[in-house]
Design goal:
Low-confidence stretches: none
Structural class: mainly alpha
Radius of gyration: 18 Å
Number of helices: 2
Distance between the termini: 31 Å
Strand content: under 5%
Length: 64
């Protein structure tokens, strides 16, 4: 959880730096950046859930 928060903080800093350097394209850049960030986060969570979720199901079968 902390890693995701740290990544988001770093990404916000990158967006702010870009916004100060290139004010004309800042809004388009920020929207595109966050769109990719959301897609990547959903992908990352789904992969992690498949990996760690299957271990939980296997552990429940072994306990019974």
């Amino acid at each position: 959880m902390g890693g995701s928060g740290a990544k988001l903080g770093i990404f916000l800093i990158v967006i702010l730096i870009y916004a100060f350097i290139n004010k004309a394209d800042a809004m388009k850049f920020a929207l595109t950046f966050f769109l990719f960030y959301i897609f990547y986060t959903v992908f990352e969570v789904s992969i992690a859930y498949k990996q760690f979720g299957s271990n939980k199901e296997d552990n429940n079968l072994e306990e019974k």
